[in-house]
């Protein structure tokens, strides 16, 4: 009100009201009241915790993060030994969580899309099999599915001394899948970098091709060209580096295989479990998204003489994606959060490592706070990215 | 697991909101008001704490809770049990949810200090060992370089394991699983070469859970000291004293030859030590803030240390454990009670 008076532009008919009757003032007042109440409650909880902990002589704070962790972790993306600090151990757990979440999201999206489209198939058998998959998988709790996959992998594979050897150099046993790895050579870092360069190059190439088509109507064989770039650039780098072919082949030594790279049964069970479970939800989202696009659109597009593939790519999918993306974001978040069930089958994810840290240091509040902060950050990150993508594909209104 | 996080958060909230039991005054007052002792135990470890087919808790850890109940109320049934996971146990005690933690918990320096606990005398001297399938052809722990080891999370076992392999310059691959059942299943399915846990627990796992117990051997090396005993909250000396002396009373009774069967005759004993313990000569109960019959009630209803040991984990039980370190000091063991006077 004060502002409108200052502007010399009061609503002439509006009678002057006291602050008590002003809905805006009331709203502000109650918001401040609630905010203050919440802040007070938070302050009370925090000080009470600190007081209680201090009185019971329980250590608080995050200084434990610098102490030596002293426990081993089964698998790690970065170098780790028990002599490293708790913060380093938690980082290992965090990266393990990210690893399974990223791979799970990619695989669940692919599998979910295939099954969602299969459910729409005119082939009776394919459609019914896809429905059966969705109905069975999404109605069984994911924890039970993890136990199931872990048991299947653990019980069905032999011990390392009788390992299956389907392809030379590849060994399947209940210790996991061992495959030959590329022997250490500095060139592989450069090959990795050149793949990144090639991806960026392809992105620019695609942009240029689209611009050109919009301007001149000429099409550019973008798919073939991209594949060519993606293969040629790393290949040339590899050849330039002397084309090393040495492999680090796994060998049975003592109890276990040494050398090569390994996919543990815990990781495999978790990845398969999360992928299968989440893909059943994504399949339904994809199916509903495609069904939501009016059939008239397809008919109109075929009337224009477009191919079936082109219709799907240029007409149906762009419209379906707007419906598919928001609920799929929730599924990605669910998959990431469900990865914390890893602790049940022994995959060393963030929760598993943080639980051990919690137990060894006894600092429950700090450890739980770290877990909550990390999951919140990952989830908000996924949300932000998907919101950006959603905006990117949203219908442009002209 | 999500439930564990929830539980941890729950206890965090409990600490946050709690004008906890310790604030309300000494634990003994609170316990007397409630009419029972709330005791945190292992959800299932045969011989130490495990519900039997009728749902009654049985085991060595459980019996020491009962002994505290008997000392305070004269009734070994004045105890309620809270099954706790390894992660939950300390927060449950800190927050006042339980009065005693009697859950095969290893006494260590950091637990004694930074966790805000006080450890009563050790009721079972254990050590961490290794179990392997016989078919592996291993007879000593020093031959385990490169092995895959199954271990339950949330215990000192994880630390000892890493320390042992580091000290010997050997490597290993840990498979750390939270649930007791899952870790057993993984080992017996062959996921690991080696299973490690406290030696006492291992004997019971082999005898009760292995498909064929004779296919597995327990290696002779013990790689750690695991003194297991009850713990109480730091800062309540009165209650701490009671729990300490309840345990000592069972040892003293065994040393003086007092059993649940002969305790009534022993009240007529001319031995001043026995008279003081059983309250025939008053004074000891009063010093503890208890009834003069406190020790009599423990021995009458729960038994002396030897009886508790034999009943739960001794050679006649499926665990088949010798007294060894857990024998009386007079027999070359470590059980030694200070004088009751």
From TrEMBL, chain A:
GO cellular component terms given for this protein: ATP-binding cassette (ABC) transporter complex
Pfam family of this protein, just one? BPD_transp_1
- What membrane topology does this protein have? Multi-pass membrane protein
State the compartments where it is located: Cell inner membrane; Cell membrane
Keyword Nuclease included in the entry's annotation: no
Query: What are the entry keywords?
Result: Amino-acid transport, Cell membrane, Membrane, Transmembrane, Transmembrane helix, Transport
Its name, as the record gives it, is ABC transporter permease
What is the originating organism of this protein?
A: Skermanella aerolata
UniProtKB/TrEMBL annotation, chain B:
- Where is the signal peptide, in residue numbers? 1-21
The UniProt keywords, alphabetically, are: Signal, Transport
Q: From its record, what is one biological process in GO terms?
A: amino acid transport
Q: Name one Pfam family in it.
A: SBP_bac_3
Q: Which InterPro entries match?
A: Bact_solute-bind_prot3, SBP_3_CS, Solute-binding_3/MltF_N
* Superkingdom, taxonomy of origin: Bacteria
The Solute-binding protein family 3/N-terminal domain covers: 36-266
UniProt lists the family membership as follows:
Belongs to the bacterial solute-binding protein 3 family.
* Identification of the protein by name: Amino acid ABC transporter substrate-binding protein
């Amino acid at each position: 009100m004060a502002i409108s008076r200052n502007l010399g532009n009061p609503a002439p008919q509006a009678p002057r009201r006291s602050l008590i009757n002003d809905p805006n003032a009331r709203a502000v007042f109650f918001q401040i009241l609630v905010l203050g109440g919440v802040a007070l409650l938070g302050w009370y909880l925090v000080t009470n915790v600190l007081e209680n902990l201090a009185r019971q002589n329980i250590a608080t704070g995050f200084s434990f993060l610098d102490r030596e962790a002293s426990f081993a972790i089964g698998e790690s993306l970065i170098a780790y030994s028990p002599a490293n600090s708790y913060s380093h151990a938690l980082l290992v757990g965090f990266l393990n969580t990210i690893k399974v979440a990223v791979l799970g999201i990619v695989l669940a999206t692919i599998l979910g899309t295939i099954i969602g489209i299969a459910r729409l198939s005119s082939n009776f058998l394919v459609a019914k099999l896809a429905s059966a998959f969705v109905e069975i998988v999404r109605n069984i709790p994911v924890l039970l599915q993890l136990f199931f996959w872990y048991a299947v992998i653990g019980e069905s594979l032999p011990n390392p001394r009788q390992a299956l050897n389907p392809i030379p150099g590849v060994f399947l046993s209940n210790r996991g899948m061992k495959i030959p790895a590329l022997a250490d050579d500095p060139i592989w870092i450069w090959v990795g970098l050149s793949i990144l360069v090639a991806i960026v190059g392809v992105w620019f190439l695609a942009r240029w091709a689209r611009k050109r088509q919009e301007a001149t109507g000429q099409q550019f064989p973008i798919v073939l060209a991209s594949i060519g770039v993606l293969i040629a650039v790393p290949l040339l780098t590899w050849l330039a580096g002397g084309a090393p072919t040495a492999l680090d082949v796994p060998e049975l030594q003592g109890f276990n295989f040494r050398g090569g790279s390994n996919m543990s049964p815990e990781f495999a069970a978790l990845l398969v479990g999360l992928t299968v479970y989440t893909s059943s939800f994504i399949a339904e989202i994809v199916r509903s998204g495609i069904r939501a696009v009016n059939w008239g659109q397809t008919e109109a597009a075929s009337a224009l003489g477009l191919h079936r593939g082109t219709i799907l790519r240029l007409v149906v999918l762009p419209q379906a994606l707007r419906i598919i993306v928001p609920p799929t974001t929730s599924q990605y978040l669910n998959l990431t959060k469900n990865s914390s069930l890893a602790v049940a089958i022994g995959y060393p994810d963030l929760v598993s490592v943080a639980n051990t840290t919690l137990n060894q240091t006894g600092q429950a509040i700090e450890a739980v706070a770290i877990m909550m902060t990390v999951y919140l950050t990952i989830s908000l990150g996924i949300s932000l990215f998907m919101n950006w993508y959603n905006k990117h594909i949203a219908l442009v209104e002209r | 697991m999500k439930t564990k996080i929830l539980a941890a958060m729950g206890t965090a909230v409990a600490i946050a909101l709690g004008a906890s039991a310790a604030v309300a005054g000494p634990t003994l007052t609170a316990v007397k008001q409630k009419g029972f002792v709330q005791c945190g135990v292992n959800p299932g470890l045969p011989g130490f704490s495990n519900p039997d087919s009728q749902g009654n808790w049985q085991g060595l850890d459980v019996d020491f809770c009962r002994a505290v109940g008997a000392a305070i109320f004269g009734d070994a049934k004045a105890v309620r049990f809270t099954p706790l996971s390894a992660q939950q146990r300390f927060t449950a005690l800190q927050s006042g949810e339980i009065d005693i933690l009697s859950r095969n918990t290893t006494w260590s320096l950091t637990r004694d200090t930074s966790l805000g606990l006080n450890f009563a005398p050790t009721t079972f001297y254990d050590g961490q060992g290794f179990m392997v399938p016989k078919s592996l052809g291993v007879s000593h722990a020093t031959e385990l370089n490169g092995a895959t080891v199954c271990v339950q999370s949330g215990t000192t076992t994880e630390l000892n394991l890493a320390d042992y392999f580091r000290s010997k310059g050997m490597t290993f691959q840990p498979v750390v699983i939270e649930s007791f059942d899952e870790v057993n299943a993984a080992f017996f399915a062959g996921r690991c070469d080696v299973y490690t846990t406290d030696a006492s627990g291992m004997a019971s796992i082999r005898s009760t859970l292995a498909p064929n117990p004779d296919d597995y051997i327990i290696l002779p090396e013990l790689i750690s000291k695991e003194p297991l005993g009850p713990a109480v909250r730091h800062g309540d000396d009165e209650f701490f004293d009671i729990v300490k002396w309840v345990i000592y009373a069972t040892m003293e009774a065994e040393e003086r030859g007092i059993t649940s069967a002969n305790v009534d005759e022993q009240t007529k004993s001319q031995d001043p030590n026995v008279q003081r313990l059983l309250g025939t000569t008053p004074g000891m109960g009063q010093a503890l803030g208890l009834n003069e019959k406190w020790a009599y009630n423990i021995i009458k209803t729960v038994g002396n240390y030897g009886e508790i040991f034999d009943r739960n984990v001794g050679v006649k039980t499926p665990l088949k454990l010798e007294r060894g370190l857990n024998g009386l000091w007079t027999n070359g063991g470590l059980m030694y009670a200070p004088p009751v006077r």
